[in-house]
Structures are given as structure tokens and as C-alpha cells.
Request: fold
Amino acid sequence: MVCECLVELLHVFLEKTFTYLVPKELEDKIKVGMRVEVPFGKRNLEGFVMSISNDRRDDIDLKNIIRLVDDYPVLNKELLELGKYMRGVTLASLMSCYSAMLPKALKAKSSVNINKKFDKYVRLNKDVNLSLIKLNATQSIIISKFQDIDVIRKKDLTSISVSSVNTLINKGILLEEEREVFRYKLEKSEKKNFNLNKSQEEVFLKVKESINSFNVFLLHGVTGSGKTNVYMKLIEEVIKNGKVAIFLVPEISLTPQIINRFTSYFDRIAVLHSRLSDSEKYDEWRKINEGKVDIVIGARSAVFAPLNNVGIIIVDEEHSQSYKQENTPRYNAKDIAKQRCIYHNCPLVLGSATPTMESYSLALKGTYTLLELNNRYNGKDPVIQIIDMNKEFRKTNDYFSTTLIEEIKSTISKGEQVILFLNKRGYSSVVTCKNCGYVEKCPNCDISLTYHKSSNMLRCHYCGYAVRKEKYCKSCDEELKEYGLGTEKVEEALSELIPEAKIIRMDVDTTTGKNAHEKIIKSFHNKEYNILLGTQMIAKGLDFNDVTLVGVINADISLNFPDFRSSEVTFDLLNQVSGRSGRGSKEGKVLIQTFNPEHYAIKYSKDNDYKSFYNEEIKIRKKLGYPPFYYLCELKIISKDYDKASLFSTKIGNYLKSNLLNEIILGPSISNIFKMNNEYRFQIIIKYKNINDIRGYMLKLQERFYNDKNIRLEIDFNPIRL
Ligand code: ADP
Ligand code: ZN
Reply:
């Protein structure tokens, strides 16, 4: 018997597999999808078994497999195929695609040693007739614990009496056994049932009709319309059919709040997200693999959950950019989800209050089935007011309009809460010298450093470079001034204006600890604070009954971002933030401060008018040839050597321009982040209609550069940002 193995090699783009002999004693055990250790040159490597066959060719000298790493396949047939699909759409190596599917503990050549955890349990020996045995009082108490339960953790009994438990074990009355324990514990919550309202029911029935066939649904439902409740009823339906559901959410909205909603309705749940430890992830993965759960809830990578019977995949907040992985393999979880639904012949549900231009246009075309929920479940739409900062009388350095300050004060005085949103962390954007215009920049990345007052440091938000802030300008000795604004600075200004307000800040700087996130949410929920001030981290998913005012301090930050999706992102953010107001029984209010009140992304936010926004935006996309009219592919040409980077990007550009005649080639140009980590970056953008027309050329370039010491080439299909 021989097998084909895929191993991790330095030249990662080789997709070649290698043939090994399977020793007789492993013939019964080896299965496709297992990891094996094999000799390779002078080293031993781990690899995946890709196929097994009986025909061995005697003419070649084959080496033996050294050992099986697993006693079961870590990649099933579907996932093995899915990896090949991923390779095709991302051009990442097959090995990196498989690695993306597995928790660290199960990746090939993993150096981490993560073990299963076991605990001791005891059960009553059924062959012993208890009525014939004399027990003392303590022993009787211990035995009585087994009245309605078969197995008890030993620790829970030894807390009564260690010696009595041991005596019972020694006498053979209690039997000891080891059981695996799963480290990640979901809090149990009280079960709550609910019924769908009429419009939710309609949506539910439409999906239910095709629960056993592949179909993509786009659920466009305003925030607070109860999309999650529809998802839960659909999942229940899937479970009734004996299948399993995958529920994907952006990492950022995978809060205890959303998990709690699921645990209060379902029992067998696995959760996968980045805040789990490696061993917890390993345990959750095995729980799923062993068929112990009905629902997998998770962020992007949960789309690879090792299931054999997927009945539905739901992608909540489908517009979220977090579904795209930004490093190799650069996959989009929505594409993977679609592929899996085709394989399992089941529905894919994409849900959002502000769908991507791509998804919505497919829904209008009829490729996706459009479903709508147009009203909030509690019937109360927040009142949204746009504040023109050009006209308003402003307090302290342009941050706050009088209207916003007055509204905050009156909200707090009623005992209600406020969420303030600012899409920028830190204290102030840039530190400049008013005299000579000197700006402190990162020496590695060539972008302005951001001032963090609490640590008195200037930090680079790309590479993490940090330096103490000096008082005087390096070039002319004048005093340095801070400009722009960040969460930290706004917090300071706000506490001067409203000293009685208790403010809590939530951004990457205040959420570095393991449970920092949860702690902030909990304390705000318990009303220890009046105002929650934060970055986009607070825009999504949070549900506080007493928040009746949401303020957007500067809607222009994301609007001015140099990217073709900046309007879409702004509309989405404003919509999400507005959704945090008035979720309970009280009316909600939203104040949006802007210098661009007439911009369509802001104007249509006032009435949450997605369709009007879409109609404006689609015209611009069409005129400029952006998605959904063209697909994009971004090439990055990166080198420590400026001249080489420049030379090769010109060469690649010319090569593409002379070969791709039906596509539009933009560039080469210097990247938005021109210098990062001491490397120079150029980019070329290809606008194309059909990936098959360009894939061959991309593969050729990839082959040419995969082992080049001077130039690194990154290829990104459907990048989320340019
Ligand atoms: P969305 O996900 O569309 O933003 P949610 O699912 O968070 O909306 O629903 C908003 C609020 O309405 C939540 O507090 C939710 O519990 C409540 N809700 C929605 N649908 C129902 C229902 N059918 N029964 C009871 N409560 C519901
Ligand atoms: Zn830097």
C-alpha cells in the first residue's frame, strides 16, 4: 500500500505530493486526511495523507511513513476538496489553505503540544447489591448522590470525604474512570421561548421552503428588526432535520450578549473565536468533529467547522469586512460558505441592515433571493438628526456642538445612557510644529505617528513603533502642538464640559486584557457609567436598554478615507451606530456631527434609507468601473530595495498590459502605505470580469517570484480596501 502526502516545504507554492510506502502494521489504520510523519531529505516532516492506493510500482524506491500523527482524519473529504477550491480562488498554497482550516494543535508540523484534558469520574458498580453492604453515615451520603445521576466528578465527592470515597472505590462499590473534559465553558442561561411576528414568519417560511436545497438568501433587515430571532428559528428547523448549523458573525460582535441569546434557546453549542486559548479551540474543534454540537457560532474561520451534515450557514452582518482574511490565504468566508452550502445542498443566508453593493445587486438581479424586514421589532425608530458643523456654534476645538452637549446632559439627568462614537483611537492624530510644519513620522512606515497621552508616547498604528513625545520641535525648537482628535482627547474634553458624567472608553488601547472587553460592557450595562465612548468596536451588536442617545462625533473621518468603499463604509457605520439607540422601551435619539451634511452617505443615513443610498452609490461604481461592475485584483510588489521594487513593478505592469487586453490595469503606483517595516511597496490593480481570464497570468507571476530573495509579490483577489 502506498499513499500520497502533502508536506510543508520552503518553496510553498509547490503543490506536488510525494509517495510513501505504508508499513503493514499501519495499513488498517491509515486514512485520507490524517497527518503523518514522513522522512524528507535529511529531515522528518509532517504532512497530510491526500490519497491511498494499493498499486505500488516496484521499480521505484519508496520510503516508509514513520508514524501516523492522528488516530482519525483531521480533514474530511469535503474539507480536502474545499482546500483545492480555496487554492483556486486565492492562489495561496494548498498547505496554507489546510492550515487555515485547523486549530493550531492540529496544523501539520505544529510545534505546539496541546493535550486533551481528562478528569476522574466515578459511577456506582451495578453488580454490587447495596442492600447486602453495611455503610457508615458518610458513605451513605456519598452513595445517595447517585440517585438521579450515573456519573459524578470525583472531585465533587471527595469534597465530602476523601477517605470514604477511596474506601468505596477500593471495595469495588464505586468504579473510577477517566473522562475527557472540554475546557471552554459556556455559561448556562435560562431557556426563553419566543414567537416570530408576522414579517419575521414570512421570511422564516421562505427559507424553510428550500431548507433541503442550495439557495442564497439575502436578508435585508433594518437594525433591531429581529434578524437574530429569525436565524434562531431557522436553526431550530435544521436541528429538527438532524443537521447542524453554522452561524458566522464578525469577531467584534461575538460578544457574550449574542452568545447568551443562543444559549438561552439552544443547548449543544460550540463557539470559535480568537479570544479562546489554543487548548480551548482544540477542544471546541473536537466537540464539533465528534458530532457533539448542533450549532457552531464563530468568526470567519468557523466556516471551516469539521461537520458532515451542514443544514444551513448563516452569515450575519454580511457587509462586514472582517469576513475577508487579510493575510495568506486571502479568502472570504462568504465564498467558502457558499461552496460548502453547494456541497451540502442547503441554504446560505446572508443578513445585513446595509448589504454590500455586490450582494444587493445580485439580489436585485435575482441571483440571490431578497428577503426584507423593514421595521424594528419594538416599532420604535430612533430620531436621527444631522448636525452641520459648519454652522453650529462649537465648543472646545470643534469636537462638540452645543446641541450634542445639551442632549448628553439632559439624557444623563434622566438616568439614561449615552454612546459616543469616534472612529479614531489615541489622543490626537498628529503632532506638528506650528512654526516649521515638522510632523513626527514613523521611520519604518512613513505615516504620521499618533499621540497617546496616558503613556505620553507617539505610536505608529501600522507597525507598533513607539517613541516618547518631546516637548519641542526637533528641527526648530518651537513648542509642538497636537492636532486632530482621538478617543483619548475627546474623553478629556468631555469631562471638562460635563464634569458630572462618568465616562468609560472602549478602544484597542483599553481592551488589551483577556476579558477587558466583557468587563467594560458589563459595567456599562450595570449603569456604573453614563457614557460609553469608543471606536467602531462599539458600533456593532451591542444591546443596552437604557441607551437613548447616540452621538457620532465626526462622521467625516471614514468618509475622507482614501478608498472607493468609503461611502459604503460610512453609511454602514452610521446605520450600525444609530441602531444602538432606543432599543428598549424608551425613544432613541441619534445626533450625527459632520462637515458634509449634503453627502449622500450622510444625507440618507437620516432616514436609514438604504435603497436611495444604493441607487446613488451604484451610479458611481458604474462610472468608475468598480465592483459590482468589475472584480478587482491587487498586486503588491514589495522590496527592501527601492530600485528593485520600482523596476519590477514596471516590468510586471508592462507584462500585464501587453497580455490582458480586455482588462483594465491601473498602476503601478506607490501603495497607500508606501513604506512599511522598512519595505517599499508598489501596487498594480487589475479590473477584470472573469477570473479565468487572468488566473493563468497570476500563476505565472507567482511562480516567477515565489522564491525570489529581492522581491515579494502579494496577490489579493477581491481586496476589501485598496
Ligand atoms: P437585528 O439582529 O435585526 O438587529 P435583533 O435580533 O437584535 O435585531 O432584535 C432586536 C430586539 O428585538 C432584540 O432585543 C430581540 O430580542 C427582540 N426581538 C426580535 N424579535 C423578537 C421576537 N420574535 N420575540 C421577542 N423578541 C424579539
Ligand atoms: Zn510604523
